[in-house]
Design brief:
Number of helices: 12
Structural class: alpha/beta
Order of helices and strands: HEHHHHEEHEEHHEHHHEEEH
Number of domains: 2
Mean pLDDT: 86
Largest sheet: 6 strands, mixed
Helix content: 55-70%
Length: about 300
């Protein structure tokens, strides 16, 4: 038995890295951080200028309110609201889930990540490692070819369904919900709600559409941002018509005011060529439980339409 264990130990060689330590001690990381922080400071400066401009406009309106006509006062209020929308849109474009800050950080770090991956590939192949782990994240960063057993497990699991009647899968796409005020932006509710609906629809037997199908349809419909699909229903209908395989498109918007969350969602059907459902739901309570219950409810109502 001891001899067998010794042989097995020789056959399996496991190594690990600490990516956290690599990022701390890599001599080039300071320059990468300076490059990123320089851009962040510029975005922060612009955001602060926009915020101060709005506050100045509000102070001026308060000071002059008595002297202004009703028409002039309403015009000033509309100008302030427009500036507020521009400010919130800027925050979303920079610090939103798919904002410029995230993209630039990924772009700046990508060459370093690729270097690390190449180094691990060389070490793994040349020194006979079976698996290399990252103890900082628990992820497998290198695995010897031929170790992936996923296909075999799926084949065995699906044996009982061999020959069963095929049921049409309904493919769907949920775009990130529009954050309609600063509280929603701060808590990234639009992305969180969309992801929860996606998960709930998958659990209900729906299939998420292919990214390429979505991107192709988006280009054909002339859609530049996901918010357009919520703001312009004609664009959403045009987008659905451009899908090759995806049947269902879900768009929406979310506001948060204290403990109250208001969500509007719209459902479009490719076969019908139009919007088939729209509903606004307002809920209050513990946020995580509230969002899960809310998105499960929305997914359930969508499932009834197509199942």
């Amino acid at each position: 038995m001891i001899a067998m264990l010794f042989l097995l130990a020789q056959e399996v060689k496991i190594g690990y890295i600490d990516s956290g330590r690599i990022l701390q001690e890599y001599k080039g990381i300071a320059e990468l951080q300076r490059q990123y922080e320089k851009e962040v400071r510029e975005w922060q400066r612009k955001a602060e200028e926009m915020r101060r401009e709005i506050e100045q406009m509000q102070r001026e309106l308060e000071a002059q309110s008595i002297m202004l006509s009703e028409e002039a006062r309403l015009r000033r209020m509309k100008e302030i609201e427009e500036k507020q929308r521009e400010y919130e849109q800027f925050l979303q474009e920079i610090w939103g889930p798919e904002g410029l800050a995230k993209k630039r950080n990924e772009e700046i770090m990508r060459p370093l990540i690729e270097k690390i991956q190449n180094i691990l590939q060389t070490i793994g192949e040349n020194e006979g490692f079976t698996v290399i782990l990252d103890i900082a994240s628990g992820a497998v960063v290198y695995a010897k070819e031929g170790l992936d057993l996923t296909d075999r497990v799926l084949e065995e699991l699906n044996r009982e369904y061999a020959g069963a009647e095929e049921v049409e899968e309904v493919e769907f796409w949920v775009v990130e919900f529009k954050n309609e005020n600063s509280e929603a932006i701060a808590e990234n509710l639009g992305e969180r709600i969309a992801n929860l609906i996606i998960s709930a629809l998958k659990n209900a037997g729906f299939k998420q559409g292919k990214t390429n199908d979505y991107l192709t349809a988006k280009a054909q419909a002339g859609v530049s941002t996901e918010d357009e699909l919520y703001e312009d229903e004609n664009k959403a209908v045009e987008m659905v018509g451009a899908f090759s395989e995806i049947r269902v498109l879900v768009t929406g918007g979310v506001k948060k005011e204290g403990e109250k969350i208001t969500v509007t969602y719209r459902v479009y059907d490719k076969k019908e060529g139009k919007k088939v459902k729209e509903e606004t739901i307002t809920v209050e309570g513990e946020e995580l439980k509230t969002l899960q219950a809310l998105t499960n409810e929305i997914a359930g109502k969508i499932a009834v339409l197509f199942k």
